[in-house]
Amino acid sequence: MANIKSAKKRVLVAEAKTARNKAIKSKVKTVVKKVEASISAGDKAAAQAGLLVAISEIDKAASKGIYHKNTASRKVARLTKAVNKIA
């Protein structure tokens, strides 16, 4: 454990940010899984509704620096493509 006061604070701040990042990534994964479940079930209406939620969550994560903007864009593009493939 760190002895210097500023180093102790950095440890606490890093733990807080790690927890925040983990929570947001988990939320993104959850909404993406819901969309993928709707796609595999063939429910286009639910998939499109879930897609809007997923895009919103992915964009929020990217704006906070949890995902790189290109990573977020790729995730959105792949999800959108999958939803549009449903007949």
TrEMBL record:
SUPFAM superfamilies cross-referenced by the UniProt entry: Ribosomal protein S20 (SSF46992)
HAMAP family recorded: Ribosomal_bS20
Entry-linked InterPro entries: Ribosomal_bS20, Ribosomal_bS20_sf
Taxonomic lineage from the root: Bacteria, Bacillati, Bacillota, Clostridia, Lachnospirales
Alphabetized UniProt keyword annotations: Ribonucleoprotein, Ribosomal protein, RNA-binding, rRNA-binding
Record-given protein name: Small ribosomal subunit protein bS20
MF (Gene Ontology): small ribosomal subunit rRNA binding; structural constituent of ribosome
GO cellular component terms, semicolon-separated: cytosol; small ribosomal subunit
Gene3D superfamilies attached to this UniProt entry: Ribosomal protein S20
Native source organism of the sequence: Qiania dongpingensis
Keyword Coiled coil: no
